[in-house]
Design a protein that fits this description.
The chain has helices at about 35-45, 90-110, 130-140, 165-185, 190-195, 205-210, 220-230, 240-245, 250-255, 280-295, 300-315, 320-325, 325-330, and strands at about 20-30, 50-55, 55-60, 65-70, 115-120, 120-125, 155-160, 235-240, 265-270. The protein has about 325 residues and is an alpha+beta fold. The protein has a domain at about 20-25 and about 155-330. Strands 1, 2, 3, 4, 5, 6 and 7 form a seven-stranded antiparallel sheet that branches. The chain has a two-stranded antiparallel sheet with strand order 8-9.
Length: about 325
């Protein structure tokens, strides 16, 4: 594994609007203050770091877009639209007290809750520019997944969808499921993340439905089936933001969680955040995602792999699928 990986591009270069595809990246870390990270981001990419509260900083106007560095919990921050303390009176005292309690919660929570850098969506070709951010985090002493037994930290990619076509969306979902065990094996997903289930694999009952070759429903049925078996954000490929963007009413009836926000992207949550490992890179993890998208383009192989997966899963003497599936990747 090399820290210098050549960027791979997905087979579809343009998004559903006909523009170059973009991807957002989120990196979880600990042991460095958000103010220091915000300062480094501004030095790397320009822009101005602005403090919203002690645990949330915006870096606006960079050459890549707007970044956010924050503690990954809503309880350490004011609600969207909430103003600061009033100048005087009982209401002002209560607001000041609330702000103080949020700051204290953030101070204590940062011992186990990760901070995260939320990068703006950038053209896929620009992703290697974020390697400088990874190096800056390393230089500042940021800790990642394997630096503490409690660090169930991850890196998340949010690539634009190439088309609204439900068959392509489903093909990508099928491909990710077929490659899940291989991805988990080569990533060597940290034990804390497995135990805490922040990026769970899909349940077997759901897998046995969607890997059937005849399963190519319309978008309504695709979303309905997904919600029945996956009413949670904690999936290695979280489809809820995309499905909420496609059909808000249908999804909100079953998923009222306001932390789920609509966006026309996949939400790939599987990679660990191996910040301290100089051999690891964001480009490497992106290239692994591109293997998923390349597989999704070949319906014949998808059907063949799906049939083999289901037969293997039902077999008394099943093979190691992480190893078995590589046959289709190299042939």
């Amino acid at each position: 594994m090399s820290s210098i990986s050549k960027l791979r591009l997905p087979p579809r270069d343009y998004n559903f609007e006909g523009n170059r595809r973009r991807a957002g990246v989120e990196i979880e870390f600990a042991a460095v203050s958000p103010s220091r990270v915000a300062t480094r981001v501004a030095k790397l990419y320009g822009g101005t770091a602005e403090q919203e509260d002690p645990h949330r900083f915006h870096i606006r106007g960079t050459r890549l877009g707007n970044f956010l560095v924050e503690l990954d919990t809503q309880y350490a921050h004011r609600a969207p639209g909430e103003v600061g303390p009033s100048a005087s009176g009982l209401q002002g005292l209560m607001e000041t007290f609330s702000n103080a309690m949020r700051e204290l919660y953030g101070d204590l929570g940062s011992l186990v809750i990760p901070y995260e850098v939320v990068c703006p969506p950038i053209d896929v070709e620009q992703l290697p520019e974020l390697e400088a951010l990874l190096l800056a985090l390393r230089e500042e002493g940021a800790q990642g997944t394997r630096d503490n037994l409690l660090h169930a930290f991850g890196v998340q990619f949010n690539p634009d969808i190439a088309t609204r076509d439900p068959q392509w969306i489903l093909a990508v979902l099928k491909a990710e499921i077929l490659l899940s065990e291989w991805l988990r094996s080569i990533i060597s997903v940290d034990m804390a993340r497995r135990i805490l289930a922040f990026a769970d694999p899909f349940p077997k009952a759901y897998i046995h439905i969607i890997l059937k070759d005849e399963y190519w429903p319309d978008i309504d049925q695709l979303i309905e089936d997904y919600l029945i078996y996956n009413p949670t954000r904690n999936r290695e490929l979280d489809m809820l933001p995309l499905f909420l963007w496609l059909d808000a009413d249908r999804v909100r009836r079953k998923i009222p969680d306001k932390l789920v926000k609509p966006r026309p992207t996949f939400h790939y949550r599987l990679p660990d955040a191996n910040i301290r490992d100089s051999r690891w890179s964001l480009t490497l993890e992106w290239n692994r995602w591109c293997v998923v998208e390349r597989l999704a383009e070949d319906r014949e192989i998808l059907a063949e792999m799906g049939k083999s997966y289901l037969e293997n899963d039902l077999s008394i003497l099943s093979e190691d699928w992480a190893l078995r599936c590589t046959e289709w990747l190299v042939l």
